[in-house]
Amino acid sequence: MTDIPMAGFLCSGKTPLALSVSVCCAYKMMEILKENGFGIGACHTEITEPLSQKLVERAKGTLEHIAGCCELVITVGCDGFSVSDIMPDITEALCKKSATFFSSVLCGARELVVDSKY
Questions:
Q1: Which of 70, 67, 48, 45 is nearest to 57 (CA)?
Q2: CB within 8 Å of 58: residues ≥ 6 apart
Q3: Cα dihedral 94, 38, 16, 62 sign
Q4: Helix-strand-coil percent breakdown of the chain, rounded to 5?
Q5: How many other CB atoms sit within 10 Å of the CB of residue 80?
Q6: Sign of CA dihedral 27, 39, 7, 54
Q7: What are the Cα distances from residue 3, in Å, to 40, 48, 80?
Q8: What is the pLDDT confidence band of residue 8, given thresholds at 50, 70 and 90?
Q9: For 78, phi and psi rounded to 5 degrees?
Q10: What is the pLDDT of residues 31-89, one digit of tens each?
Q11: Closest Cα to residue 99, out of 107, 109, 88?
Q12: The model scores a pTM over 0.85
């Protein structure tokens, strides 16, 4: 067993082209993480379509697997911050604690609130 923290990636897209853009972005993030002491523990790809419950469930299972073997989990998609993005919903369903998604902050839908007790 190693003391190196592991990062895992779930790259998603609605089409193979969109998926390839996600993989490219993840690769760039992997390089930065490796330079800063992380190992890459997992990298999975999923075609996701909000209307396909089978694909949503498969993505959820993949995300659960990554979370079980990595200290840091990053989901990468190229849909932008849109209503059809299902990854925040899948992620929120798996989290034991509630978290403000950075996409909501970046879009201005939510303000970044820092709680001083943490």
A1: 48
A2: 46
A3: negative
A4: 45, 20, 35
A5: 9
A6: positive
A7: 13, 33, 34
A8: very high
A9: -120, 20
A10: 999 999 999 999 999 888 767 888 888 888 998 999 899 988 888 886 666 667 777 77
A11: 88
A12: no
Which stretch of DSSP H or E encloses residue 46? strand 39-47
Tokens 């990636």 belong to residue: 9
Query: Is residue 87 a contact partner of residue 56, using CB atoms and an 8 Å limit?
Result: no
Residues, the chain: 118
Give the model confidence (pLDDT) of 80-105 as tens digits: 666 677 777 777 777 765 545 554 54
Instruction: Assess contact for 102 and 45: CB atoms under 8 A.
Output: no
Residue appearing with tokens 């990595």:
70
